[in-house]
Amino acid sequence: MGADGLLYEGKAKKLFQTENPNVLRVEYKDEATAFNGEKMDEVAGKARLNNELSALFFAKMNAAGLPTHFIERTSSTEQLVKKTRILPLEVVVRNIVAGSLQRRTGIAEGRELTQPIVEYYYKDDELGDPLLNEDHIRLVEAATPPELKQMRELALQTNEALTAAVRAAGLLLVDFKLEFGLTEDGELVVSDEISPDTCRFWDEQTREKLDKDVYRYGLGELTDTYEQILERMGGSVS
Length: 238
Ligand code: TMP
Ligand code: ASP
What we know:
Layout: E1 6-9, E2 13-17, E3 23-28, E4 31-34, E5 39-42, H1 46-63, E6 70-73, E7 78-82, E8 84-86, E9 89-96, H2 99-105, E10 112-122, E11 131-132, H3 134-140, H4 145-167, E12 171-183, E13 188-191, E14 199-203, H5 213-216, H6 222-232
Antiparallel strand pairs: 1-2, 2-3, 3-7, 4-5, 6-7, 8-12, 9-10, 9-12, 10-11, 12-13, 12-14
Helix pairs in contact: 1-6
The structure holds thymidine-5'-phosphate and aspartic acid.
């Protein structure tokens, strides 16, 4: 650990210790990456936008009674969260075909799914975050069967809460990625971040992409897009 309490530095965020052993401070970074870090840019203003948007979405989840690690936003680029042990899985929920589901199945982008699909990816950069099924998850011990069942239920409940929240702003929730952690008390909570880096949002009318795909595929200015999401969602609430 660094003298400043730095515990971990990732691509988009830094994690610091606080005086409270059960609370961490997250500092968002002005860094955009895609394709497992192959594409990387400093983007002024991204830290504030993702901090505000993540705080906004987590606050909506907390208000809906869904367990998250989020406590409060403390500055334009920082928020306090409960300390958790992150499970090494990325849980993706999909409502509309896009991204790797399109590539894996050959089904055209934009097909609405009759029911949401939940996928699990193993958080392992060297392996390239492979898709796992429930038997693989048991094999690598990424989560216990009861944890997996609870993650799936919470992911689907999050899908309902977030879909309703963004629909009111004229947006479709195409898909999103969640990470889960266990608190000191052993409670399973949604951790990490919820932002246009980790969700796909399309305009309901035009189906314009309003998320990190604009950066991944060079479709527009990332900060203009994220600012539009923040404005449509009514600005910061916490
Ligand atoms: P995918 O279609 O590339 O599998 O992405 C599904 C969703 O997960 C999409 O909303 C973007 C999000 N995602 C992340 O948050 N981090 C990642 O590393 C990847 C690959 C996807
Ligand atoms: N989050 C990953 C990266 O930063 C991949 C992505 O979102 O496309 O490299």
